[in-house]
Amino acid sequence: MRPPDGDRGQVSVEFLGMTPLIILTLVLMWQAVLVGYTFTLAGNAADEAVRAGTAAPRGEARRAACAEAGLKHLSAAWRGDASVECSPSGYVTADVSFKVPVLFPGAISFPVTVRGHAGAVEEVKH
Q: Pairing with 49, which of 25, 35, 62, 117 sits 20 to 30 Å away (CA)?
């Protein structure tokens, strides 16, 4: 006589039931990483923009150099939603804005804007 199967196959059923929860957890963790990376990119872009802005001559050339440097190191996927604003006064400031992407950059974005701000005193040339 054959013994009853009891709980045979139970692990497979439990794993199939937990798979959506595991995938959802991984997706949420990845999204949290993207939010953090967006903050890092915004801060770095603002720093680069200010660095270039302080070294450039005054006026529109400074504003253009600042904006160009803020976008220079970004890939095309991140550059699409990015905006860089620079103030070319004696104290040069740069504000960079990004939209937070959903799962991967370049497709759709959350309606949340991440901002990076940096400032530096204008370099004096003798």
A: 35
